[in-house]
Write a structure and sequence with these properties.
Largest sheet: 5 strands, mixed
Strand order of the largest sheet: 3-2-1-4-5
Strand content: 5-15%
CATH class of the largest domain: Alpha Beta
Oligomer: single chain
Structural class: alpha/beta
Number of strands: 5
CATH architecture of the largest domain: 2-Layer Sandwich
Mean pLDDT: 92
Number of helices: 13
Shape: globular
């Protein structure tokens, strides 16, 4: 069976830097459009916006004066209707879920949601942020400058927080026996340069993108904007994970492929709309328009205006 080409891009990628970075949401998009359809869409966007800029980005569409163009692009009868897909990752929740998955024996998403929702109030915002930062530091072989925590220091903090009464303390108490799992993970990471770090949301998002577009049994060939994190080793892992669903991955410059440029537009506007919604400043109209594109298995635990399952 001949594979279908899906053009992909992302917005908000900062690798394993989930906390304290430039963005709090990561968006990965897949767009199914022919070359002529994508080129016509780009031309129409340029005509409607009328900017002399040589390269258009999502920021052009997000300007208030171009609101009508953005609504047209996302509308149920617009050019992306049935042709776009967005997988969203709330970075803080992704970190919490990684902690529960790695540290708690038989950890579940429900447990992660409980900790994510109750942790800040139970431990205090500053202590909660320090706990999450310490966890991400322990899992990185080369943590960011000035942010280093040893496993011993981290598990001492786990012991303190486990004594806090309530649901959050009960969840963290399940982390106390996670030292061997952290050590084993760090050893695998050091020994296998192709291993996908548990703190990087890119590869899991790509998996969901492929699964979405191959749901009918048709294999998928990804045409992805240039992305250094998708190394040859990680592409092999993707193919091993997805089997015949993923036929190929090739990289292009978005400026040379109109389909990827459309994916870039969708990724950028989706990340901004989702981030605004996550932080209580969402635009109801834009949030409503984005809903139909969002993967129900997105890593999301914010306001459920986006109708993401389990949110």
């Amino acid at each position: 069976m001949r594979p279908v080409e899906i053009a992909c891009d992302e917005s908000g990628s900062e690798g394993e830097n989930l906390l304290g970075g430039e963005t709090d949401v990561f968006a990965h998009t897949g767009v199914r459009m022919s070359w002529p359809e994508a080129a016509a869409c780009v031309r129409e966007i340029r005509a409607r916006i009328g900017s002399p800029a040589e390269e258009y980005k999502a920021n052009h569409l997000l300007r208030a004066k171009h609101r009508a163009v953005l609504e047209w692009l996302l509308a149920p009868d617009g050019p992306l209707d049935g042709r776009g897909h967005v997988h969203l990752t709330g970075k803080t929740f992704f970190a919490v879920r990684a902690a529960v998955s790695l540290l708690a024996e038989q950890g579940t998403d429900a447990m992660a949601r409980t900790l994510h929702r109750t942790g800040p109030a139970a431990f205090g915002t500053v202590r909660w942020q320090f706990f999450l930062t310490a966890f991400t530091s322990v899992l990185r072989l080369n943590p960011r400058r000035g942010v280093t925590t040893s496993p011993q220091e981290f598990f001492a903090l786990v012991g303190e927080l486990a004594g806090v009464p309530g649901e959050a303390g009960e969840v963290v108490a399940r982390f106390r026996d996670g030292g061997d799992r952290v050590a084993a993970y760090r050893a695998r990471l050091a020994g296998d340069p192709g291993l996908v770090p548990v703190l990087d949301p890119l590869v899991p998002a790509v998996v969901h993108t492929v699964r979405h577009w191959s749901a009918g049994g048709t294999p998928v060939a990804l045409v992805h904007d240039e992305q250094l994190a998708l190394t040859a080793e990680r592409i092999l892992q993707l193919k091993a994970t997805l089997g015949p669903r993923l036929a190929d991955v090739r990289f292009v410059d978005s400026r040379t492929d109109a389909r990827v440029q459309i994916a870039d537009f969708l990724a950028g506007v989706a990340r901004r709309i989702a981030s605004d919604d996550l932080n209580g400043r969402g635009d109801p109209r834009l949030t409503t328009l984005l809903r139909s594109f969002v993967d129900a298995d997105s890593v999301w635990d914010g306001p459920n205006h986006l109708d993401i399952a389990g949110g």
